[in-house]
């Protein structure tokens, strides 16, 4: 692909294009490349009409139909495979024909995608070279000299290619292709030059530099010209394809043109193209028809042209016709994009798509399955009546379908409501997902993982969880038992599934533990890290925190699996598994399950679970051989549990209050962790200096950086030790020399994840030097800061210092560790002495000028992200300047830099009390008035999070921010103001509360349902982080919170204050919500009322979650009704809403008491406050979904619009072959036995036999004999019915109503003469029947349309070859009739008013 404007090479190529139209044609990506062949001379047009008589070879597209993340999306390219014998006739006819232009993307966009892909490959090559160099640095230099040189050469060339690709991408993004408005005549508008493209503008006529635009042709005129061009006979296939492509482009440029189509003319052109013998012409016809779809009326017009037969005929062809089949399937999918378009899809097409979906090796199988799934969601009656449920069921069962999660979602949608649930069998569809786990023959790990993903998605939905919990959790018990019984990949996959379902994140030491290393050191190291960072990770949350719906749902899942026996199964696995890694993994999972149960589940669930009675009873049997294995498991579980507790003690027990005064349980560990690393004796200190290798070598790659970091963070923090290291050794001197920019050591190291250790060590070094007077003096006298200041001066245009390659250039900041100097400066900016040193070298002065000039946004973002703003000093002034005077991107980055100062408590240098955050809040309030909405929205989100701390909230209210100009963006922040009396009175003075309250009561309460359900859907998705080996200094990690919390609700915030509760009581809204739940809570047939009930449930739950809302709950019996909805409603999603609302209510003391009386319980902390994870004491009462009555397919009656053949066949009983069975039937039915033994399907006996044999093809017992007899009838040419349209319709009716394999459908349709389909499409059945009555001249069809039979006649029926030769001879005799019909066809199209009156005669002339 060549871009129209990116590089000089491409520009020169573009100039060549303007001089040579042939090059332009070769550069286009659609069928516009096809040569436009002029019509033949009148004297040469005597041949029969032939749209395509030659082969077309498309460039193969490999995997264009592989499943994609989006359902139903697949490549738009076309391809065709032809027989080599036919392709040899005209090998060069379609040399430039590659694919239909399906996508609207320009060449420039494709070039950009290609460049980005190449850039990604080069980045991977670069990373590999860097890792190889780092590995070679650990070996001897002499041994790896040659290899090192090769790797360095590859790395340098990769850097050059990366730089060149980035320049190309930048140029391509900035430059757009110049518009061309060619001067053309009316004829050129239609035919567009000899190659199907427009001619380039002439320099003499286009008026270079002129603003005058040339007049363009009318779209309707162009449409008429294209349709007239399609009327011409005897042209090559590329002629018709290019004209159809031009028509598609016209529809793209003028979308409203399709509403003005005259279907009597357009439909005739469409029918002729779809009946062509060229696969490419047929594909272009389908594509042209698809782009003509506008509304439901256009779909009806298309179906009135008998396209159901054409689509069915195309879909059953073989792989050589994939170009045609693909476009036919796209046409069917286009019906789904129109409102109520599924009502215009016939049952016959669904049957055919289902037959394709049943073939495992079929290329179109994935997209056919997606199409069936979409039809299942939109119209389950049509899919089930069309037999499309079986392929979907099979795709779920075998696990081979890659997009099994989207397919599962279709079944989950039907299982939610009772009116759609009845079409599925209870305990059948979803349980097929477990087949690959319970089948001994299934061991493909890829299929197991795909099925595990589908099971996880089903268990994370309410409809799936309720259905899989039927029959006493039968499905869940089966997968747990398969983990114990099966071996190999099944066990590992089930364990991974449990980790995913319980959302367990493996600790940092898990990999080493699974590899067999001991746990003696992991707990201490992790505990040391947790205690040092605990203070910075705790949040102020004075309101007790907000409800976490994800953990609430996880608590329910955990309770289900515990009841299904997951803990005994894991214990059994730890004793019987021979794989040591699996044993350790199951042991770790047991520890995680015990940890989760103690935190999420009520004591009634977790107390007995923690005892592990089965394991201890087995260990107590001293005479049993299993005693030793059980004892070992107990020891392993104890070690894992203890290590997990040390890793995160606050998360291990529920007794920690989510407030700033919470007790750090890590301090209660039985091993006190004092900072003894500082107090080394002399011998140990000197030995560490020697072990660091810094004293013996000046090559930094040979240094032991773990020991170096241990020294920097440990003994060197002591002034005496630091002075000794400075004066008595070269340790500190060499370390500081390594970091000096102009030594080109640290500053030349390539940036990668592995080299970030040097940045961390540098930051620790700055922090250590600031701890003692000796370090401060040494740092002040060292050249490090002076050289960093000189590097900054190179970026300051006013400094007078310049450099050809500045140290802080954008490329160096991206590719090397030069950006690591800014985190070091950030450490210095957090200390008063460090600020003095920075001020000494005028570093802040240069930063001020850099921010003012705005020439280096990358440098500004890097400074803002790394500076420490805790002190009232230059960094805050610099930040304030960026907040107000920077560009929009810089203002957004500066606003995000305030997040950690406004939302989290910052400890001062002594670590005693939090630093004041008022300055950050003031700056954020100022950002609310920024002219850019994105900046305001960022500030609102940070302030909303900051409101979790009550003192922050009160201060924000005191600032009295005006949010009226922000509209909906500022609404969440205003809602948080209601949670305090000060904020309530402030908003009441603005008359905000009464207006907002009425707004929520009248409509916003219902719209909140969609908001929170979308938030829950996002939070339940699996977010897999893409971990790369490269770190960019420009990727600033923002602490973006997940959407697992409750979106702000007006009534929740209103109930936080006494004034709000009084207003709510006076308005009477809560009583209205309770009455709606009581009167309409159990309804399941009215969707609008169900949304109303959901809105009332969320309102009641948010009011009940507050302690001040307890009187509202006690004033009525609304909690009992909510429990009834959760335990007995027919709609599963409404049950889930009630479950989450119960969790909200349980957060208040009075709400939990009421729920306890109704059989629900929740875990509490040591103060008795509920955590909100409320689950039923008896799970069977909550999972009470009973098997429903299944509606079989025989009870489904489709409307006539969804049938291709509406004529009903008489009931055909089975025809017995044994005399005893015949006598039994005679004894039962008496005189009616003749009618039972044979039902008349057709007056003609041969046709009767053909129909009986077609029926027998659906019987596997009679299949072979029926097929052979049908082929025999066809080969003997004694069946006139194969040329009769009425028999074809009857056979199509059988294919529509019954199940046949794809090959059988192809064979059955291939038996019929080619003229039959044309007769049906053009409604010439009566004339055809008259011709069939005269057996002397059977209708064989002319050569106007040519061959359009299916692949079965080529591949499966060798007997047809003789008949084809005979028909070809008859076609030659029909040349004269072809001349007449072409003349008549021209008249019908050139004179549209007369087209309707002559249309019937024209159609009959095709086969006369």
Automatic annotation (TrEMBL):
Residues 1090-1162 form the Rapamycin-insensitive companion of mTOR domain. Residues 241-602 form the Rapamycin-insensitive companion of mTOR N-terminal domain. InterPro entries: ARM-like (IPR011989), ARM-type_fold (IPR016024), HR1_rho-bd (IPR011072), HR1_rpt_sf (IPR036274), Pianissimo_fam (IPR028268), Pianissimo_N (IPR028267), Rictor_IV (IPR029453), RICTOR_M (IPR029451). Residues 1-80, 140-159, 168-215, 1324-1408 are annotated as: Disordered. GO terms for biological process: TORC2 signaling. Residues 1324-1334, 1353-1378 have a biased composition (Acidic residues). Belongs to the RICTOR family. Residues 680-904 form the Rapamycin-insensitive companion of mTOR middle domain. Residues 110-179 form the REM-1 domain. This is Rapamycin-insensitive companion of mTOR, N-term-domain-containing protein.
